[in-house]
């Protein structure tokens, strides 16, 4: 027995990826439902550092990151709600010869991929950002940089999705997904939800979601630590990182400074980010204070950890699910807050039957490696 | 270097100190850590060194006796250490006088005490308005009066302790404004009389207040505090038994300080961080950990005791502390069952003896939903981030169903106090707006640091080359 699908498209997972996808699909004419086991954007998409930076983006993602940056910068127009986006310069610092070499190599490759990154001298960097340490040797400078207030993401998308007419189903865990001759049935405690097509947009939970369809796609779980200071007087105005990418630092207009860079805490897919590792937190903060010396006077208000997904080759899983018509996956995007909206939009185009203007990242490459 | 021990005890109030003593007497190597300069906690606080205060009163005596026993014990005392991080199985990281420190032990007792609750009213953020509990700290540790002319307002026994303390130090109390009417206290007398020694202490306070002829307004609450840049007067009005404003004449008192408080909230950060099971108990002040009679949480080898596990007061906290210390020693196989049973029986009995008194006092300090319901829309609830009641209501209407999502929508609880001050009231507002029980809106997700800590004390001195920078992500 199979019931007629209620929705043209069901998106399972309401992070920034699923939310953008649902929004563009609905606006493109598909009756869409988005289902999340919690509130929208409260996992990676609500607890990340909000950095919208090309200097931490993987080279293969630069075109998406460039377009997504423009999307974030114009969020008021297409999203209609504030996510506190600030566009500013970004600097990637080198303190040692080794870091200088790394910087030149990485900036060069990103520049070749289309990112407007230049290498600047110490004095030039200090002119761009007077707050940085004069111990630096050189810096990468990118004028397309900035940040958003990640914690506002859910509120903004929720309102936009509801206004667009998407059926928003929060606090409703999907327990299983069944394929029928007419489409898909998502099993939830409040009853089944049926749709003709499905997108699995579950962040680190893509792996268990794919298992519902009998597909094994290994997804590694990164546990990123972040810390935030109490409000302090302005000590910096740009986004600051280091050559290795293990620092992301900026001060919000209300005065707090968020320190990240992917230092790893403890946790897993079942329990979330469970614990911060004090040595790593101290290491991350030392690095931040080394980069912006005035930060040392600030007080730590809070630290937390969130889960970021990674495939075997650290490139996204974004495209159709091989062998299962009308099923798609979207996620595992490195620095996915920056690039996520663009990749999700491209997949929405594909589902809407349009030619995507930027390439996707089909998972055939990962499945071949995974199936023995 | 990490100090290894058999047992770590965080918090050297009556609960933690007794726990440390009991476990140490049973043979465990115990480290007792507190950010204060000496043991005693909030209620039995030691005066700041260098101050010679007239040492009298049961709290001072109890504190001195406790400190003397601790000094004679083998407990490794680490004062002046602010613990900011707690890790599983069990590691504490602290900012100490000489920089970062770490402690590790297979067992941990959390005895971190309580925070105070102020149910907001217009003007409560003016300079000159301080918490009742904060006022006791000024009086006890620093012998400082909160102001020249003080209105003392709110609910619970701290009201009388503070008023009596101000009078004893020669200050002027402009008025005592108690949300409870005389009938409420009369009904409580049987419960209070179960501990005559403590009742006598309370009667002593009342006596000194009567002697000073201080206006006493029973069944009144603060309506608003006014002043240009600092407090100049307090307007009070009648309230009903549930704390809601009632009809009747308002009265105004000129003053330069208002000490106001509406009970205490358990400071249970540690069991929350370590994800022990919790439940909501209005009488005990909020969400508290599930405990067995000896203070074992649902996490193995994690114990909790004292006001952090539900508001009961200093003496019951001390008894609960002894039980937790004994349980830790027993679980570590340093006490045989018979000795444990015999020792624990004394503290179990003490705890049971205190219970009617403690419940009666706790009831006077519990959150009154009608008082929260009466908070006006423009009143600031989160004073770190200036979030008003209207903004919290709007967030709920916009779909924020639990306290953490409300935080994302409003920044409520995102400031330096991380919701320790506003959390209980903010959660009550969310629950009331949604029309659901408090349990459903949950509590703030607990994270490090336990208290705001300055970076420079956390990171110490370092060379760039020594920062353990992990390998970079793929390009
Ligand atoms: C701490 C941290 C800092 C970061 N910093 C940055 C940064 O500065 N810049 C940047 O560009 N990127 C950053 N990232 C990465 C970025 O946050 C992520 O790449 C991005 O948010 C991923 O979005 P997503 O929608 O794929 O996944 P998520 O946001 O994780 O969304 C997945 C959703 O699926 C839902 N779900 C799971 N299981 C089920 C189920 N059974 N039923 C229904 N729903 C389910 C979850 O509840 C969740 O809402 C950071 C990540 C972290 C963790
Ligand atoms: C501000 C305040 C004032 C009070 N004044 C009085 C009073 O005058 N009279 C009265 O009868 N009752 C008073 N009380 C109530 C009284 O504190 C309790 O009933 C009693 O002290 C409970 O004992 P305890 O051991 O559970 O906690 P506490 O006595 O509060 O002891 C907890 C200890 O833990 C320490 N601690 C907590 N977190 C950390 C950390 N992260 N790092 C290092 N140390 C930490 C604190 O410094 C404190 O010493 C007050 C409560 C508060 C909150």
Automatic annotation (TrEMBL), chain A:
Residues 8-349 form the FAD dependent oxidoreductase domain. GO terms for molecular function: oxidoreductase activity. One of its GO terms (cellular component) is cytoplasm. Pfam families: DAO. It comes from the Bacteria. The keyword Oxidoreductase applies. This is FAD-binding oxidoreductase. It comes from Phreatobacter aquaticus.
